[in-house]
Amino acid sequence: MGNLRSVENAFKSMGYEAIITRDSARILNSSGLVLPGVGAFRDCMKNLNTYGLKEPLYKFIESKKPFLGICLGFQVLFEESEEFGLCKGLGILKGRVVRFPEDKLKIPHIGWNTIKIKKECPFLEGIKDSSYFYFVHSYYVISEKKEIIATTTDYGIEFASSIWKDNIFACQFHPEKSQRLGLKILKKFAETCEKNVG
Amino acid sequence: MLAKRIIPCLDIKDGRVVKGVNFVKLRDAGDPVENAQFYEKEGADELTFLDITASSENREIILKVVKRCAEKVFMPFTVGGGIRSLEDIRSLLKAGADKVSINTAAVKNPSLIKKASQKFGNQCIVVAIDARKKESSWEVYIYGGRTPTGIDALKWAKKVEELGAGEILLTSMDKDGTEDGYDIKLTKSISEEVNIPIIASGGAGNPEHLYQVFTLGKADAALAASIFHYRKYSVKEAKEYLRKRGINVRV
Hints:
The complex is a heterodimer. In chain A, the strands form three sheets. Chain A has a six-stranded mixed β-sheet with strand order 1-2-12-11-10-7. In chain A, strands 4-3-5-9 form a four-stranded mixed β-sheet, with helices on one face. In chain A, 30% of the residues lie in helices and 28% in strands. The relative contact order of chain A is 0.18. Chain A contains six helices and twelve strands. Chain B has helices at residues 32-42, 59-72, 86-95, 104-108, 111-120, 153-163, 184-193, 207-215, 226-229, 235-244, and strands at 5-13, 16-19, 47-51, 77-80, 99-102, 125-134, 137-142, 147-152, 167-172, 198-201, 221-224. Chain B is globular and about 45 Å long. In chain B, a hairpin with a 4-residue loop joins strand 7 (137-142) and strand 8 (147-152). Chain B starts with a strand and ends in a 7-residue tail after the last helix. Classes of the chains: A alpha/beta, B alpha/beta.
């Protein structure tokens, strides 16, 4: 909820147009789509269902226009989550979402943590290895396909902190809350969207 | 590795900063957004706004502050003070706050923590605990530290974790304002009692105090006000000091 507004503010502060909408025509007509999200997996899937957003989401991603998933918007791309009992995700990517082990470190994982770059990714252009980004989550993604993992982060275990596959870039951290470096990623995303239009 | 967080705290009254950056040439030292931007540039990891506005009719004012801040500042910030209901929480989050901090209302109505964390996610629900030493333990106080509750702070911390709080903002009332260091014993006891992050508050006077609360006190984050506001140390200097002493901070 909070981060919906923050993502909009971040794009606007850099001079890009951004709208918050649940209208499928507007979604499909946009040059790029961001699915932010904090909160619970089940609620998020329920809301996507209630507002008929699943179809436009699938369609948009198929259209090959740039898509950005943030935090929960990253997790719901996968097949299922074990948050509050099993819950089905969008299943666009293969893998599942599981809780951090209780016995190791404090949950939620809150604060600034570093990323390890696993592969070159256009959306991470200009971001150095070991840069800090802001995280806040209790569950993490286990991607079946390791080759889509763009960065990992260490919190007791090493988990996928971002993935890149075709037109999809999705990250567990919050670029909209990660100051200068976060805005850099959002700018790169917006530029990619603009190129698409042009 | 996850960095230890440094969180400056700004007191807000009627939409204006009453305890914020001093001795610095801000165009308007009372503007919460300018203060926030100042700390963002300095490398603060998060910010906390404590709304000390007395009357409850003035919620609109803090909402405007939050909205303006969210437009200009791209780091996480928490808003506390006078939050009583789910509706209060919803409007703050909607305006752009990342987290809310609940103190008195949590004690008076513990189900609020549960409902709020289920509704908005536990990551945005911070429970603030004001604790004061009482014999060999600590007692929880409410109403800005004016009213003792008879509740044991350790038990309360455990309880708020169960209810779904995402973090605890722990203030030592004995140490608050003294600038002679955090209450290490209290912080360590609570931090070991629960499995959610602890933000230590009350008593910071120099970077050595931050070092102590992170190591001996096992805090995950440290909140501080006057040490930064009065420019005794900048956030950057404090972090440099911590880094040299082996603490993992974002610099």
